[in-house]
Amino acid sequence: DVPTDDAAVSLKVTNYPATGTLSLPDRTLSPESSLTVGEVEGLRYEPQIGAGTPVEIAFEIRADSGASKPAKMKLSPSVDPCDLAAGEPLDLQGVVPGLLPNEIGADAVKLCEAAVKAYPDVARFRYELGRALLAAGKVDQARK
């Protein structure tokens, strides 16, 4: 019941996830952060490595015209198939435990090409595509 047409409405994070990162396209949120109703669609949760269970985020809806109301949102993390197929064990931005080069399967190239196409600004997918190409013996393509 959030009034989406009211620019004076904001949401304050009151229950931040115990692990992982909550963010918007332009900034990382912290406990007690505020966001506008229009920004809710861009809300993103990046789980800690190995954590795949849903998390519940609580907000306080604030409006100039009245008292605040509580609201909850359940976020279910999903891991891109490219991460699962060619993730690097020592990647500081990795979201999976990762695979050694000899563990990368033949389908990793196709999966990572799809991830790079869907998320061109995520450098991790480009790196994982390079790992997949190298594992497939396509050294020149991997280098690029």
Sheet with most strands: strand arrangement: 4-1-6-7
What's the SSE pattern?
Answer: EEEEEEEHHHH
The biggest beta sheet is recorded as: 4 strands, antiparallel
**Gyration radius, to the nearest Å?**
19 Å
- As residue ranges, the low-confidence spans are none
Determine the mean pLDDT. Answer: 85
* End-to-end CA span: 49 Å
Indicate the percent of residues in helices: 10-25%
Gross morphology: elongated
Number of distinct beta strands: 7
Number of helices: 4
The percent range for strand residues is: 25-35%
Provide the domain count.
2
Task: Briefly note the structural class of the backbone.
Answer: alpha+beta
Description of the molecule:
The protein has 144 residues and is an alpha+beta fold. It folds into two domains: 10-75, no CATH class; 81-143, no CATH class. It has helices at 81-86, 108-118, 123-135, 139-143; strands at 10-15, 21-24, 27-28, 34-36, 44-46, 55-63, 66-75. The chain is elongated and about 65 Å long. The N and C termini lie far apart (49 Å). The mean pLDDT is 85.
